[in-house]
Every structure is written in structure tokens, then in C-alpha cells.
Design a protein that fits this description.
Layout lengths: L5 H13 L4 H13 L8 H11 L4 E3 L2 E2 L3 H14 L1
Antiparallel strand pairs: 1-2
Helix pairs in contact: 1-3, 1-4, 2-3
Length: about 80
Amino acid sequence: MTVPTRAEVREVLQALVDGAITPAQADDWARPWLVDDRFQVEDELVRQALDRLFGADLMTSPSSYLHGPADFQAWLEEFDTQR
């Protein structure tokens, strides 16, 4: 397993925006590169996106997410402007 490319990260962001994956799936996908010390994410744009995806399923209460579709869209737009 290698650190994802910008293209791979963008695909996951787009899938989250499109509803093709859940926030929990986005979190699960991003987790290994942020919690496993074997991986060094050197690309700051990739790291920032992974951080966001890793927190996509954070809850503010048992029935309310911290982030929602508008946030996911903003993350994708910001990612695209920095590419």
C-alpha cells in the first residue's frame, strides 16, 4: 500500500460529494495514511485532504454529523483550486 496520489484523493472526495460513499467509508479509506507511522504523506495538499476525509464522519451528537454535503463540496472545490 502506498500513499494515495492527488488523483486518487480527488476521486474519494468526489465520491463523497456524489454520495457514492458514506462519511464513514471516507474516514476508513483515509485512516491508514494518518495513523500508521510507516506512511509519510509529503504532499501537503494530499495530507490536508486526508485529514478532512478522516474526520468526515465526526459526530456532534448521537444523531448529528459535524460535516455535511456542503462541507464535502467545499473540500472538493478547495482541493481543485490548489491542484
